[in-house]
Amino acid sequence: MFTKNPSSTLRMSKRNFLLAAALSLPLLAGIPTASFAQEATPKKEIGQSITINGYQLEVESNNKSSSADELNSGRLGKLSTSDVVDWYKFTPNSSGSVTVELSGVPNSIPYRVAVTKDPSRSGFLDISSTTGASRTVTFIAEAGTTYYFHVDSYDNYDTSGNYYLIKRL
């Protein structure tokens, strides 16, 4: 890498100088070099850090209850085809009334939200209407119990659209 010249100074070859400079760029840009050796960030973590208008972006794949996104205060989601279902979950710290609102959907698009304690069984605690500016489910939640919310396009209505899912305690 270094060569000694007749005047006793160390000199770096041009190739090695360019290589050292390229390896130093991340440090000069303020990027820790250890970040290049880390594993890729899972999609769930990336999506949870993205917010639009104060709502966390839904993270795919949440098409099954086993991969449901956490429903903190609210989510921005999208149903891309008639057979897509989005799942969310919430475990309250205290008992009381909970309302979840599905909004931002045009009146003509029959999206709905439903809530259940056990997604492996048929039947919901409450199902919203399929039309209107605001579609809500309300139920009495028990502390420590996980509740699952299911957003779908009623009767396989074929459309693509965004929605907001908002939780109110």
From TrEMBL:
Origin superkingdom: Bacteria
Secretion signal span: 1-37
UniProt entry keywords in alphabetical sequence: Signal
Stated name of the protein: Peptidase C-terminal archaeal/bacterial domain-containing protein
Taxonomic source organism: Brevibacillus formosus
